[in-house]
Amino acid sequence: MDTNDDIHQLLFLVNQLEATDKAHMILHLEGYTNKEIAETLKLTATNISTRMNRVKTKLKEAFSTVSHELR
């Protein structure tokens, strides 16, 4: 797989997330800090950090599963 395929796969997987998780990830990918995301979504920075770690774990697992299936 090349980088372009990886990016498309990541975007596909992000689109499969629940709305709140998708919002967190999109804001994170756009370069917002956890504090900025927390302020935007009216949550605490700790809550955002915890949720981001969970979302990243989900995405890593899904990405490696899909990547492995394509090889």
Number of domains: 1
| H and E string | HHHH
Q: Which structural class best describes the helix and strand composition?
A: mainly alpha
Number of helices: 4
CATH topology: Arc Repressor Mutant, subunit A
* Helix fraction bin: over 70%
Cα shape: elongated
In whole angstroms, the N-to-C terminal distance is 8 Å
Whole-angstrom Rg: 13 Å
Low-confidence parts: none
Name of the top-level CATH class: Mainly Alpha
CATH architecture assignment: Orthogonal Bundle
Describe the sheet with the most strands: none
Q: Please report which band the strand proportion falls in: under 5%, 5-15%, 15-25%, 25-35%, 35-45% or over 45%.
A: under 5%
The count of β-strands is 0
Average pLDDT: 87
Brief account:
This protein is mostly helical. The chain has four helices and no strands.
Plain-language structure description:
There is one protein chain. With 71 residues, the protein is mostly helical. It has one domain (3-70): Arc Repressor Mutant, subunit A (Orthogonal Bundle). Helices cover 82% and strands 0% of the residues.
Task: From the structure above, extract its key features.
71 residues; mainly alpha; Arc Repressor Mutant, subunit A; Tscrpt_reg_LuxR_C; Sigma-70 family RNA polymerase sigma factor; WH-like_DNA-bd_sf; RNA_pol_sigma70_r4_t2
